[in-house]
Specification:
It is elongated and about 65 Å long. It is mainly α. α7 crosses α9. It has one domain. Helix content is 87%, strand content 0%.
Length: 264
């Protein structure tokens, strides 16, 4: 006779496991913050992770930002031309990048490139028992391995988002002014008069900091919590990319809601 309660047991087990994992992630985050002093006392650890997470991501961020700006310039010119306002192309490109596309797309690229790399590195250290070896030598792996990677990703993300937006504006200028023939003075003057530092640029900087913290935390946690096998590490990398993407989009909606409410 089939067990009619089996689906409910599975559902209860899944919910319990998720709650337990959320609680463990919260404890992990507080332990990371408590052990973060090592990241700043030994600054070379954090600087190395800024290089690994930021400098090594420059190529994909730069190329993607330039091409996003080119596409925005083409699409924006076609739309604005219908309303007889092609001189507002610079405003549309700058606002789209500084408010939304710069932080969001840069964070998604950062999660897929740097986040997966952080998870793989920590996961492999766990699989090869390097983290256990640190424990045996009285070295806290959270302070020595996890915290520098978290702060390195957090500090690198806003810089990458700023570079993405800057190159996007350059791409919009190239396609709009150089190739299509929009007036150069109108392009820059309308942009400078319409883009506000506090409500547009600063809000984008806040978003990039939040996205960097979320992606870095997910990446280090998944690596630290992964099963010490090849399959466990690969699943952790997949969870990092998927969870980071969902977290970025959800946080973008929440932050945008508060920012627009504050500006109204």
């Amino acid at each position: 006779m089939p067990d009619l309660l089996q689906p409910f047991r599975r559902l209860g087990h899944a919910v319990t496991e998720r709650i337990w994992r959320l609680g463990f992630a919260s404890r992990f985050f507080f332990a990371l913050l408590l052990q973060s002093g090592t990241s700043f006392r030994r600054l070379h650890l954090t600087l190395r992770e800024i290089y690994v997470s930021g400098v090594l991501s420059l190529l994909i961020i730069s190329v993607s930002g330039l091409f996003v700006g080119l596409v925005l310039g083409l699409q924006g010119y076609e739309i604005l031309q219908r309303f007889g306002s092609p001189e507002y192309l610079g405003v549309m490109v700058a606002l789209s990048l500084s408010r939304e596309l710069g932080p969001v797309v840069a964070a998604l690229l950062f999660a897929s490139r740097a986040g997966s790399s952080i998870t793989a590195e920590i996961g492999l250290m766990k699989a090869t028992e390097q983290l256990k070896a640190m424990d045996m030598m009285a070295v806290d792996p959270v302070a020595r391995v996890v915290a520098p990677r978290f702060w390195g990703g957090l500090l690198a993300m806003p810089l990458l988002a700023a570079l993405f937006s800057a190159l996007g504006v350059l791409g919009g200028w190239l396609i709009g002014v150089v190739f299509i023939g929009v007036d150069d003075g109108a392009f820059w003057s309308q942009m400078q008069s319409s883009v506000d530092f506090r409500y547009d640029i600063w809000n984008g900087v806040i978003k990039s900091f939040v996205f960097g913290a979320a992606v870095s935390l997910i990446a280090v946690f998944e690596g630290y919590d992964s099963l010490p096998t090849a399959e466990g590490v690969s699943r952790a990398i997949t969870r990092t990319v998927v969870t980071s993407a969902l977290a970025i989009l959800a946080l973008d909606f929440v932050l945008t809601s508060f920012m627009f409410r504050g500006n109204s």
